[in-house]
Amino acid sequence: MAIQIVMDHTGDTRHRFDADDLEALSRAEERFKSLTAAGFTAAIREGSGKVAITRSFDPMAEETLFFPRLVGG
């Protein structure tokens, strides 16, 4: 079961989906596109434990983390 984790000012929201379920996969891809279009950065955890920024939806990624733009002053 894959997961998309969305970080925000309240903590995080987790969206689990089955990559073999075409409807769930479609919703996950739409969520990816919507969040990245809104300025979130997406990162996937690779098998070695390293994290890599991604700019496109990867249906095989077990975990995708979305974090908002940092705003500083």
Polypeptide structure, described:
The chain is an alpha+beta fold and 73 residues long. The chain has one helix at 22-37; strands spanning 2-8, 11-17, 41-45, 51-54, 63-67. A five-stranded mixed β-sheet has the order 2-1-5-3-4, with helices on one face. The model has no long low-confidence stretch (mean pLDDT 92).
Which features does this protein show?
single chain; 73 residues; alpha+beta; 22% helix; globular
Radius of gyration: 12 Å
Query: What is the number of strand segments?
Result: 5
Uncertain stretches of 5 or more adjacent residues: none
- Topology pattern, helix = H, strand = E: EEHEEE
Largest sheet data: 5 strands, mixed
Q: Approximately how much beta-strand content do the residues carry? A: 35-45%
**Fraction of residues in helix:** 10-25%
List the strand order in the largest sheet. 2-1-5-3-4
Total helix count? 1
Overall mean confidence score, pLDDT: 92
Global shape: globular
Please give the oligomerization state of what you see: single chain
- End-to-end Cα distance, whole Å, is 39 Å
Tell me the structural class.
alpha+beta
